[in-house]
Amino acid sequence: MDSDFSLFERHVDALYRSALRLTRKPEDAEDLVQETYLRAYRYRNRFKPGTNEKAWLFTIMTNVFRNRLRQRPAPTEPLDQPGTDFSIYDQLRREGMPVHLMSPEEIIVERGFGDEVKHALEELPLPMRMVVVLVDVEDFSYKEVASILGIKIGTVMSRLHRGRQALQKKLWEYSGRPKARPVAVGAH
Amino acid sequence: MGDHCEQTMRKLSGYIDRELSDAEVRSVKAHLDDCPPCDKVFDFQAEMKRLVRRECCTDDAPARLRDWVRQLATEKAPARDQEA
Ligand SMILES: [Zn+2]
User: Are B77 and A8 contacting, i.e. CB atoms less than 8 angstroms apart?
Assistant: First the structure.
């Protein structure tokens, strides 16, 4: 049984980088990962062999993290922000840039949108940030994320959608451009 | 923007995240092959996803944390130095 714990060890980098996005501080991230592994170790008999051990560890970590947020008064973050549709691509096109003739790399790198991704991600409200990290960085399926966070798949999808738009909006602002005006949905 | 474009844009996230059924994948792919404007949007959003992953994968766990976890597996884990 104990030798199986090595199965969990290999996810330490994934847990740490996600912990860092959630807590924003290296020392808090390290502490969160330690607590996660202590619990995983204590409850290792509850893990069903053959199921996804990475998802199991992330479930523990997000639970520990949410419990900590409840204990420590943190600045309140809005749970769900109403989203206005935004994408860097559409915004540049509206401004008359020939985006259809440019590669994504040209748009992102040469226009300076790629420099502060971590910072932008860490600025997202937590519910959206968690979903974007789990899907885009950790490559979990919508179903796995729903199970890890204890939410519905539809909620995963809407938070992901709004999280990605909010991320692009932040990258837009960090690149030194004026705040983007909200645009009617479907404008093309 | 035609109906097919709108349908495709609605399914774009699912397509990029590999969450669609085989039939949906085929219909999205057929439209993207046919419609350069939608295909460019797809390229861009797919690159944004890769960018997020690439940028965030650079933070590896500190060596002492890695060692601590390894020791835990052998049940010789030191007590945590402080309680948060
Ligand atoms: Zn189209």
Answer: no
ipTM: 0.85
Q: How far is A42 from chain B (nearest CA, A)?
A: 10
> Which chain B residues are within 8 Å of A142, Cβ to Cβ?
17, 19
Regions of chain A with pLDDT less than 50: 1-3, 185-188
The residue of chain A nearest to residue B66, with distances taken between CA atoms, is: A12
Domain boundaries, chain B: 3-72
| A146 lies within 8 A of chain B by CB | no
Domains of chain A: 2-71 (1.10.1740.10), 88-174 (1.10.10.10)
pTM of the predicted model as reported, rounded to 2 decimal places: 0.87
Buried b (16+ CB within 10 A) or exposed e, B3-38: eeeeebbebbbbbbbebbeeeeeebbeebbeebeeb
What would the pLDDT profile of A11-32 be if each residue is shown by its tens digit?
999 999 999 999 999 999 999 9
**B46 to chain A: closest CA residue:** A104
